[in-house]
Design goal:
The chain is of the alpha+beta class and 332 residues long. The chain has helices at residues 24-32, 54-68, 70-83, 94-101, 106-122, 164-167, 175-188, 196-209, 273-290, 296-305, 315-331; strands at residues 221-224, 239-245, 249-253, 258-262, 266-268. The protein folds into 2 domains: 60-209, no CATH class; 212-332, Roll (SH3 type barrels), CATH 2.30.30.30. Helices cover 42% and strands 7% of the residues. α3 packs across α5. The protein starts with 23 loop residues before the first helix and ends with a helix.
Length: 332
């Protein structure tokens, strides 16, 4: 009888395992002991953000103000270019110069200049310290904190406009009313810089309460009444030919510029249509000659012609103007 070979004994697997692969039961046991992902705590290493130094804080404020001053500086610069006629060596009119050099329409340049004037007006008082009425009906008692240097800031004592759209609706108002309207807009914006829409709505309500029917017509000749509008300083009595009739203001052309001004700054001459046409022709002639940069005494003469209380020139005035025109034509 042959002996059977001995059977190989199986290795015990209970309580221990060998190799890199754990048994299934052990794996299931580990999974069952894992933490619920919904309540797991994740450790994130915090990255320290250094605070701004005093110099960096100063630089930030300075740069922010430069951004905020952009439209203001542009308007002031355009006003200088216009008033000093610094374009006269290359362009006959300010309108042509703006379109050629900056791509601005006549209306766009006028609005930028007007917006800068309003900004300067708003910057003369501590607006945030002013008492603000809830309805804007009466001008409030305002703190008169004078500023030697116009600083546009949205913190501290003042809350001032930061772009042209916020200022544009105020152009048609008187300086004192501009301040009242802006304060009301700041109030409605919760003490922050208001949007152009908020400012426009405030101005609309003020104008509706004091609305004067705009009966002017395009081509009508008026006289400029300066009152206390700094933008019109030196233009008192000038011919103003209506070029656009707006709801609360008119856009007018003078012999050397264009303005959008409130109705309170205009007084019609009540000229007949033919007389209005004569004034326009004379005004155009003055503009062409004045662009040549003549001597101061000659310029004063031309400025005087642009303020006449009549729609015609005397024989002597006509002769002098023709002489100047001939000199100008010879120069170009």
């Amino acid at each position: 009888m042959m002996n059977k070979p001995p059977r190989k004994r199986k290795k015990a697997t209970s309580g221990a395992f060998s190799g890199s692969e754990p048994p299934a039961s052990s794996t299931n046991e580990d999974i069952s002991q894992q933490v619920d992902p919904a309540i797991a705590t994740i450790t994130v290493t915090a990255v320290e953000v250094p605070e701004l130094t005093e110099q960096e804080q100063s630089d930030r404020l300075h740069l922010e103000r430069k951004v905020e001053r952009a439209f203001f500086e542009a308007g002031k610069a355009l006003a200088q270019l216009r008033d000093r006629r610094l374009y006269r060596s290359t362009h006959k009119t300010f309108e042509e110069y703006c379109r050629s050099r900056f791509g601005y329409t006549r209306m766009a340049a006028t609005y930028k200049i007007a917006a800068a004037t309003v900004m300067e007006n708003l910057s003369t008082i501590g607006l945030q310290n002013a008492e603000i009425t809830t309805d804007g009906l009466q001008p409030p008692q305002m703190s008169t904190i004078g500023l030697q240097n116009v600083e546009m800031s949205t913190s501290g004592l003042q809350i001032l406009p930061t772009n042209e759209r916020q200022v544009r609706p105020l152009v048609a108002l008187e300086p004192e009313v501009q301040r009242t309207a802006w304060q009301q807009a700041v109030h409605e914006a919760g003490g922050k810089v208001p949007t152009g829409r908020i400012v426009k709505d405030v101005v609309q309500r003020i104008m509706e309460r004091t609305k004067v029917p705009n009966t002017y017509q395009i081509g009508e000749v008026c006289q400029i009444i300066v009152k206390d509008n700094p933008e019109l300083r030196g233009k008192g009595g000038c011919w103003a030919i209506i070029s656009a009739v707006n709801e609360f203001s008119c856009t007018v052309e003078t012999w050397n510029s264009e303005y959008t001004i409130g109705l309170q700054h205009l007084k019609s001459y009540n000229y007949l249509p033919a007389e209005c046409q004569q004034v326009r022709e004379i005004s155009d002639r003055i503009s062409r000659v004045y662009s040549s940069g003549l001597e101061e005494s000659v310029q004063k003469f031309l400025e005087m012609l642009g303020k006449l209380n009549r729609a015609y020139l005397t024989d002597l005035e006509e002769k002098v103007l023709r002489v100047l025109e001939s000199e100008y034509i010879n120069e170009i």
